[in-house]
Specification:
Number of strands: 0
Low-confidence stretches: none
Shape: elongated
Number of domains: 1
Mean pLDDT: 89
Order of helices and strands: HH
Oligomer: single chain
Largest sheet: none
Length: about 80
């Protein structure tokens, strides 16, 4: 057993955790972008109920989860 083998295992685990964190940040950022976009449109058209803000949350979450699932299945 060489000294580089534990380092390779450590690098592989860091790579996996980094990919998971990137996917989570994608979901969060997409949710924020679509939420703020929906909120801006609701305020611009003076909607009393923030329908577009709520829709923005779910659209951002859906796109984020779609990207996460796509990346998880493409990983080999």
């Amino acid at each position: 057993m060489t000294e580089s083998e534990p380092n390779n295992d450590l690098k592989k685990s860091y790579t996996k955790y980094t990919k998971v964190l990137v996917m989570l940040f994608q979901i969060i950022i997409l949710m924020l972008i679509f939420t703020f976009l929906g909120n801006w449109i609701d305020k611009k058209y003076e909607h009393k109920t923030p329908y577009l803000t709520i829709i923005g949350v779910f659209v951002g979450m859906g796109i984020g989860f779609y990207n996460m699932i796509k990346n998880a299945f493409n990983e080999k």
